[in-house]
Amino acid sequence: MENIDKTVSVVVDRTVLPGKVNEFEGYLKNIIDAASKFPGYMGSDVINPEGNHRYILVFRFASQEELDDWSASEPRNFWVNKIDQVIEKPTELITLTGLETWFYLSKANNFVPPPKYKMAIITYLAIAPTIMIFNLLFGQYFSSVPQHLSIFVTAPFIVILMTYLVMPIMTKLFKNYLFPKDKN
Q: What CATH architecture is 8-97?
């Protein structure tokens, strides 16, 4: 049976040394540019949650194999070595492959996923309207397809919408619910 790879995201949390932000941002631009040239690269996000020296980077690849190729590459290692000279501690990667990828934007949780019941509630609140709107807009185009087959035809569109549009919005809207601030 053929091995089916899943999209994989890598989250990197870096704190830049004082006075080194411009240098770091230059290196960051170069490493993203280098990653974009690799097979399977699906995009990246740079988050500066407090607007200070902390940067959260998310790289998405189509498969674990393609991520591994990037991770072991000369261009990546070159830029990581440059970046490591201007950050507080060496680069560490956190790999996410499941639903927790949808909830990576917290600035306070150090990438500990929220409780599963919270992820389930927010996912339900996102997916039910997404399916209804999708069916209202595009259902007529699938009316000639048997219902059990239309699920297989429409599911990829729903997954793409959820991953790249709906869940990032929901994560921002419900960040205080998903990642409550520590009261201590």
A: 2-Layer Sandwich (3.30)
* Whole-number pLDDT of residue 100: 53
DSSP element (H, E) containing 144: none
Render pLDDT for 151-181 as a digit per residue (tens, 0 to 9).
888 888 888 788 777 887 887 788 788 767 6
Residues β-bridged to residue 56: 13, 47
| CA angle, residues 180, 183, 184, in degrees to nearest 5 | 135
Contact by Cβ (8 Å): 30, 71: no
Parse the chain into domains and list their residue ranges.
Answer: 8-97, 116-178
Q: In angstroms, rounded to a whole number, what is the distance separating the alpha carbons of residues 47 and 140?
A: 39
The 3-state DSSP class for residue 7 equals coil
Residue 26 to residues 90, 121, 122: CA-CA distances in angstroms? 18, 40, 36
